[in-house]
Structures are given as structure tokens and as C-alpha cells.
Design goal:
Number of domains of chain B: 5
Helix content of chain B: 25-40%
CATH architecture of the largest domain in chain B: 3-Layer(bba) Sandwich
Strand order of the largest sheet of chain B: 10-7-6-18-29
Distance between the termini of chain A: 45 Å
Number of strands of chain B: 34
CATH class of the largest domain in chain A: Mainly Alpha
Radius of gyration of chain A: 21 Å
Largest sheet of chain B: 5 strands, parallel
Distance between the termini of chain B: 40 Å
Strand content of chain B: 15-25%
Oligomer: heterodimer
Number of helices of chain A: 11
CATH class of the largest domain in chain B: Alpha Beta
Radius of gyration of chain B: 31 Å
Number of domains of chain A: 2
Largest interface: A-B, 25 and 19 residues
Shape of chain A: elongated
CATH topology of the largest domain in chain B: FAD/NAD(P)-binding domain
Largest sheet of chain A: none
Number of helices of chain B: 19
């Protein structure tokens, strides 16, 4: 068989995590009935197929972490409610996201969010004193710049203290 | 007084069968039509003729004295013929003055959209039934005494349980082909889903069978001949010579120790070895040694070694004559041989095994005392795979279309056992569908996945290749992800199908039981008569009827025992009077019927030079009637006159006669 042929690999890469973590362990009970995908609102519009996520995670297929699908979940918990085997599907996806980040996989959009956070202290920043948000505040007779990190840039250090405490930098290098 | 035969007075009853018939066939039209058929004196229709009110309708008319023959146009006679016959019987009429026209299955159900066509067919059926009933003659059911003894063929788990249930009431003869009872179950290490030790639950039952005063245990014996007299079956059993006197043998095993011959042990599925003087396994019942004369070189070392002088090389096969009232067939199953499915490499690659071989490897009494080893290098495998549906759900020649029912469960069981013994190993099960249908089975499967971490991969593997070190590369497609994969395993176990015994046709010939399409014995009705065969007094149970697991086999054993008890208990059996009779004054003595009779019911009387039919053995199939060149044979209830009257009742036939 030619080496470049795409082959699924069954590996025990996550087997430690699967047997230790109570919620991840539950995906072993998955019977691939597809109910989670059937009720997934995001899956109707994106490439998210929760059934395949469960299967790939169980098979130890690395593409589940490197691919963008797990990030399409809107965490509506429909799947969590309906799963006949009571697998906490949404929580599993959240845990897979954790694992993905730990391995350095993060979508560009989220990288921007983090950049915003570490630069301005806001995931959605004001965007400068002439931005439309600033004008809107002015219209409502509020201070143009809110009394947050935007007004007190030195408070950003407190954010870094907190982020350092949870070792955020070790996972997502931000500075 | 007139000597003329009284004209038959027929009453026709047409059943709506709820809406099954009435929705398609106009009840008023067909009732009106029936009134004008010759010999009919009354015609009525009713919503449910089989209901008590419907039966009362017939009973009132019979009591009024205006009618003496009855036609009911309704469902199949298989369903309700007995119901209506009983009405005639209870009102002191001969029950054979009754015919049932099947206008539900034959007319309405098959012509739901063609009401006119259905009506035409229904009219023909009613007309034929009236013609037949007008020519019917009174018949009497014969009664035969039933011998209060039973024969059970096969002493696996099914045969043993049937024997134990019957033996409290009747003398039971239990015939087993191998030297010990116990069957396949004795070969198993553990049983799903409770994981209890198979031997621990089988051997107490084996001992009970061996010691029961009412069970005549005939091991190492085969059926030689059967005379199918209903209620009084005469059976010849050949008790094969063990070359050891069973009255003296203490089972000490000295003969086995001195025997110089080693041959593969069938009990270990040829994985281990035994001597030519042997017991199949230590807990065998009876605990007697057998000298396997096929492999014995007659060195007679055992004769000198035996302290009680039990060995007798002059011992001959013994023929035992039995007379029994009922027979239970529990001959069990064979295991599919996957060597023809070359892509899986059984018997080509050393480390490809079948499940029963794995079972013996896992068994603490097996050839390796419970240590699982690779045949290639005798080391313990680290990664093993199970392939499901080998020989099942396959349409190729030599394989089977059906699902073998037990393979999913035994594969999970073996996987769990392996994982318990070797927790660091990896186990894969390649399946098409996991069918875990029984009580506690789904839970067993779920725990295997969740707690044991067994990998279930959907999709049948396509190819297996062998590496130089004996490990195997499996190539397949994960059908849930639609992606191809390659996995390396140290050992592959094929979950092989359960199939009918290769010599089942011999059993079928002896006992007159029929086959289903899949090669297993056929039950009389798939739902309502699951353990009855088509021959009266003969029952089938266990895996000779279809693949099944131990709980189902035991349930069938008990059902068959109860049915056999029910059959023998009254002491008498009624024979259907449909048998054929030879008119000796016409019989030319050509003997063509003698050879054709499938039930061996016809004998030839040399003194009168005529054939003679045994009414009890005759099943009324009609082969002899059709074959007789001089029309000397009459079949009751289906005489020439009766059948022709039905044919003539059809219009095309009238036209045919007119035209010619």
C-alpha cells in the first residue's frame, strides 16, 4: 500500500485520559445511534457531526483535535439532553477543546480573541475613541471610554497575574 | 322404504373475519350465490364464525335437523378446522361432514385491489367445498396406545434437561454418540452474561443424569434403525464397543497412562492431545475409559496394566431394541469451518484461530491450562482481534444467510476474559452489527466497552496479511467514519457460525423430520408449535432446530419435555383417518408403491401377492395413490370421487367437458 494513502490509525493515545476522566470515559458506551447529530442546530449549517466526533475520539484519531469541527459547537446542550446512553456530549466536546488547545490547535478567530484580551483586557474591545461603540456611548450620555481596563491600562497586570496563576501562557503563548 | 341415498343437505356459512374478508368480498352477493349451489339448503354470513356466537349458529342449525353437512368459508383450515369439527362432534354429527373454504388467504388478502377477481375466486372455493362435502363419507379416528417411555437423541445441555424433566414420570433412554454426555457446553470455559464457569453448572447436571434411576444412559451409541409407529416407535440402538467392560472399569486411568498412542483430542478441538485409551475430559459421565479402535495399535499394554482386568478386546458392538412412546431430537450443531474463506487465512496463518479454539485456550482445563498463547511462538499476544459473522450473514456457497445469534456475545465474553487475564492488552472486535438481544446481554456489551475498554470497530475486514514474525496486518474500513484503516494484531479470532450437523440428513431419514431452507430441522409452526416436528410424537429441541444460546436451548428442552409428557400422558393417541387403503381385489402386486412410500408404511404380503398399508405409519401424503397403475389405492377423505367432484365443480372444467 502506498505510504501517502490516508489511513485511520487506532491508537491508545488518549486511553489514559479516557480511563481517568469520568465524563470522557462515557463515550465508550456510544452506540453511534446519531441522535446527537440529529438534534444539533449547528450541525445543520456547519461540518459539525457530533456522532463522528465521538467515534474519532474513541478511535484515538488525531484529526478530531487538529480539525476545526469541535469549535463549531454552540454548546446548546441539545445532544447532552437527548443522548440515550447519557453521554455528556457537550461536555466531551468542551474537554476535547481543552485537549486540542493543550496540543497547540486553536482556530485563528479564537487566537484573535485572545490577542484582544491580552492587549486590552476585553475579548470584545472598544476599538478606539472614534469607534462606533464610543459614539454610541456618547449618544447615551455615557463616558466615551468606560471605566474598565480601557481607562486604567495598569489593571492589565492584574489580568496577567490571574492568567499566570492558571498557567494560561504555558498553553497559549500570548506575550 | 327407499333404497336411494339421501340427498346431502349442506349449510354454507360465510365469515366476515372482521373486515379481512368483508372489505373485499360483498357478503350479501356471495351468500345469495351460495344459496343456489346444488345441495345447499341454507347460506348465512356472520362477522366472526369462530366466535362462540358463530359456532352457536352452526349448532342451532344442526340441532334443527334441517342440515347434515357444513361448509364454512373463512380462513385457513390450519387455523380453525378443529373449532368447527368440534361443533359437529358435540352435536352428534360425524366431524368429517365438514369442509372449510379458505377465502381469506386465497381470495381476499391476495386481491385487495381487485374486488371482482376476489369474488370470482371466493365463489369457486365455496362451490368446490360444497361439492366435496356432498361426497364426504363419515370417518372414525382410530386410537392407539402409547408406550410410556421416551427416547432422547443427543445428550448435550438440551438433551440432558429434557431427560431430567421427563425422567421423574417416565423411563427415558438417552442416546449419545460420543463417549460422554455434556455436549458443546462442557467444552466452554465461561458462559455469558453471568460469566459463571460453564463446567461448574454443567457437571452437576451431568452427574444427576448419570445417577437418575429412570434414565437409561446409552453413550458411545448410535441410532441404527427406527420404525415410525406413532406412539410405539421401535428403535434399534447400536452401542459401540468400548473394548472395556463398563461394569468393572473404575475409571482409574492406568490404561491411558501406559497407552503409547497420542492423537489430537476432539474435546480440545484438536488443540491438545489424548491417548488411544481415554476419557475426553476428567469430569466425563460416565467416567469410563474408551479404547479408540481406529487409532489403537493393539499393543495390549493396557490389558497387562489394568488391575481389575476390565479390558476386553473381544467385546462386540451391542444392538439394543427399544420401544418408546415419544422421541425428542436434540442432536445439536456443528461449527462452521472458515478455511474456505481464504481472505481470513484460517489454517494458512498460524495465529488465526476460531472461537472454539480460543475458548479451549482460555479454559483452565484446556491444553494450556488457561494461558492464552500464540500458536506461532507460544508467547502471550498483546493485541488481539475478533472478527464477527464468519460464515453467517453471507450468501456465498457453503456459508449461511442466517445470523448465528450467539457469536456477538461469545466474542464479547472471550474479549472480556482475555482482558481480565491480561489487563495491558488491547482488544478489537470487528463487527457488522452487535446483536445483544437477551436478558442482561446489552448491559454485558456496554460494560465491555466502558469498563474493559474493548474497541468495537464497525465493518467487516477485507484482508489479513501475515508478517514474518507471525503477527497479522488487518485491513478494513471503519464504516461509521467511512475511512480505511490498517491494524496490526498478534492474533485474530474468527467468530464462526453455528451450522446444522453434517449428518443431519441421516437423522431426518430415521425420524421423518423435515428440513428448513437453512439446513436445520423444521418445526411444525414457527411461532405456535416451536418444538413439534411434523411427525406426531417426535419433538425437536435445541440447536438442531436453529442457532440459539444456552438459556434458549434449556427453555426448548423443557418445552419439548412438557410436550412429550402431554403426548404420552393420556396413554392414547388419535390417528387422523386420512390414511390410504389398498383394495386387494384390484391390486396387481406391482410393488411400485412399496418403494415410493417415504414413511415406510407399505409392506408386501407374499401369500396374497398384494400390498398392505399400515394405517398408523401412513401420514396420508398420497404418493402411493398417485403412483398406483391400477387405481387400487384409496385415500380416506381424498378419494378419487371426492377430488374429481371438486374439480368438476369449477366452471372451466364443465366447459372443457362440453367442448371435448
Amino acid at each position: 500500500m502506498p505510504q501517502n494513502q490516508k489511513l485511520l490509525k487506532y491508537s491508545s493515545e488518549y486511553s489514559d485520559e479516557l480511563s481517568v476522566d469520568d465524563e470522557l470515559k462515557k463515550i465508550r458506551s456510544c452506540i453511534q445511534c446519531g441522535m446527537c447529530s440529529a438534534v444539533c442546530p449547528s450541525g445543520s449549517f456547519t461540518a459539525l457531526v457530533t456522532r463522528k466526533i465521538m467515534r474519532k475520539a474513541l478511535a484515538g484519531d488525531h484529526s478530531v483535535l487538529s480539525g476545526p469541527e469541535i469549535w463549531y459547537c454552540s454548546t446548546c446542550f441539545n445532544c447532552y439532553e437527548r443522548c440515550p446512553r447519557t453521554i455528556p456530549v457537550t461536555n466531551v466536546i468542551l474537554k476535547l477543546r481543552n485537549m486540542a488547545v493543550r496540543e497547540g490547535y486553536l482556530p485563528d478567530a479564537l487566537k484573535n480573541v485572545i490577542k484582544n484580551l491580552t492587549n486590552t483586557g476585553h475579548a470584545v474591545p472598544l476599538g478606539g475613541p472614534d469607534s462606533k461603540w464610543a459614539k454610541l456611548r456618547e449618544y447615551h450620555k455615557l463616558k466615551k471610554v468606560p471605566p474598565t481596563v480601557h481607562s486604567f491600562p495598569e489593571a492589565l497586570d492584574e489580568l496577567f497575574t490571574l492568567l499566570d496563576k492558571i498557567k494560561f501562557n504555558a498553553r497559549i503563548p500570548y506575550r | 322404504m327407499s333404497l336411494e341415498k339421501p340427498k346431502p343437505r349442506v349449510a354454507v356459512y360465510i365469515c366476515h373475519c372482521g373486515k379481512n374478508i368483508a372489505d373485499v368480498i360483498d357478503m350479501d352477493e356471495i351468500t345469495e350465490y351460495a344459496k343456489h349451489i346444488p345441495n345447499v339448503v341454507s347460506a348465512k354470513n356472520y362477522k366472526f364464525m369462530c366466535s362462540n356466537a358463530g359456532q352457536d349458529l352452526i349448532a342451532e342449525d344442526l340441532k334443527s335437523g334441517k342440515i347434515d353437512r357444513v361448509v364454512v368459508a373463512a380462513c385457513s383450515p390450519l387455523m380453525h378446522e378443529e373449532t368447527y369439527r368440534r361443533v359437529l362432534r358435540e352435536n352428534n354429527f360425524n366431524e368429517f361432514f365438514f369442509e372449510q373454504a379458505n377465502i381469506r388467504e386465497h381470495a381476499s388478502w391476495v386481491n385487495l385491489r381487485d374486488h371482482k377477481g376476489a369474488m370470482d375466486i371466493a365463489k369457486d372455493h365455496v362451490k368446490m367445498a360444497v361439492a366435496k362435502v356432498s361426497n364426504d363419507r363419515p370417518l372414525i379416528r382410530q386410537k392407539v396406545k402409547v408406550t410410556q417411555e421416551a427416547l432422547i437423541v443427543g445428550a448435550g445441555i438440551t438433551g440432558m434437561f429434557a431427560a431430567l424433566d421427563l425422567a421423574n414420570k417416565y423411563k427415558v433412554h438417552l442416546v449419545e454418540r460420543t463417549p460422554t454426555i455434556g455436549g458443546h457446553m462442557a467444552q466452554l470455559d465461561k458462559t455469558f452474561p453471568t460469566m459463571d464457569c460453564s463446567a461448574c453448572i454443567t457437571t452437576p447436571k451431568m452427574v444427576e443424569v448419570g445417577r437418575h434411576p429412570n434414565i437409561n444412559l446409552l453413550t458411545y451409541s448410535e441410532i441404527e434403525n427406527v420404525d415410525l409407529n406413532v406412539g410405539n416407535f421401535e428403535v434399534q440402538v447400536r452401542k459401540k464397543s468400548r473394548r472395556i467392560n463398563h461394569l468393572i472399569c473404575t475409571g482409574c486411568g492406568t490404561c491411558g497412562e501406559v497407552c503409547p498412542i497420542t492423537v489430537p483430542n476432539e474435546f480440545d478441538y484438536n488443540m491438545g492431545y489424548r491417548r488411544a485409551a481415554y476419557v475426553p475430559f476428567p469430569q466425563a459421565i460416565p467416567a469410563q475409559y474408551t479404547i479408540d479402535i481406529k487409532n489403537c495399535i493393539e499393543c495390549k499394554l493396557c490389558v497387562d496394566a489394568c488391575e481389575v482386568n476390565a479390558i476386553d478386546f473381544n467385546q462386540e458392538d451391542e444392538i439394543i431394541d427399544l420401544k418408546v412412546g415419544s422421541i425428542i431430537i436434540a442432536t445439536g450443531n456443528d461449527i462452521f469451518d472458515p478455511s474456505t474463506l481464504y481472505c481470513y487465512g484460517y489454517q494458512k496463518y498460524k495465529n488465526v484461530l476460531i472461537a472454539i479454539e480460543m475458548e479451549r485456550l482460555l479454559s483452565s482445563t484446556g491444553p494450556t491450562l488457561g494461558k492464552v498463547i500464540k500458536p506461532s511462538d507460544h508467547k502471550t499476544p498483546k493485541r488481539i482481534g475478533f472478527l464477527q459473522c464468519v460464515g453467517s450473514r453471507d450468501f456465498h456457497e457453503g456459508t449461511h444467510k442466517y445470523c448465528s445469534r450467539v457469536c456477538c456475545m461469545y466474542a464479547i465474553k472471550q474479549a472480556r476474559q482475555f482482558k481480565e487475564k491480561y489487563p495491558d492488552s488491547e482488544v478489537f472486535i470487528f463487527y457488522i452489527d452487535m446483536r445483544t438481544f437477551g436478558k442482561g446481554y446489552e448491559e454485558f456489551y456496554e460494560i465491555a466497552a466502558r469498563e474493559y475498554g474493548i474497541n468495537f470497530i464497525r465493518g467487516r475486514i477485507g484482508d489479513v496479511f501475515e508478517n514474518n514474525d507471525g503477527s497479522l496486518i488487518i485491513r478494513g474500513s471503519d464504516t461509521l467514519l467511512a475511512e480505511k484503516y490498517e491494524i496490526e494484531v498478534d492474533m485474530l479470532i474468527l467468530s464462526t457460525a453455528i451450522e446444522a450437523r453434517k449428518d443431519a440428513d441421516e437423522v431426518s431419514r430415521f425420524f421423518g423430520v423435515q428440513f428448513s431452507e437453512d439446513g436445520f430441522f423444521m418445526e411444525a409452526h414457527p411461532k405456535l408449535k416451536p418444538v413439534d416436528s411434523l411427525s406426531t410424537g417426535i419433538f425437536i429441541a435445541g440447536t438442531c432446530q436453529a442457532p440459539r444460546d444456552i438459556p434458549d436451548a434449556v427453555a426448548q428442552a423443557k418445552a419439548a419435555a412438557s410436550s412429550a409428557d402431554n403426548f404420552m400422558f393420556s396413554g392414547e393417541v388419535e390417528i387422523e383417518p386420512y390414511y390410504s387403503m389398498v383394495q386387494p381385489e384390484i391390486c396387481s402386486g406391482c410393488r411400485s408403491c412399496v418403494q415410493l412410500c417415504p414413511y415406510d408404511a407399505i409392506s408386501f404380503d407374499e401369500t396374497t401377492n398384494t400390498a398392505d398399508i399400515n394405517a398408523i405409519k401412513c401420514k396420508g401424503c398420497g404418493v402411493c395413490v398417485a403412483s398406483c397403475p391400477s387405481n387400487a389405492i384409496i385415500q380416506n377423505h381424498f378419494t378419487r370421487n371426492q377430488i374429481l367432484s371438486e374439480v368438476r365443480a369449477l366452471k372451466p372444467w364443465e366447459n372443457y367437458i362440453k367442448e371435448n
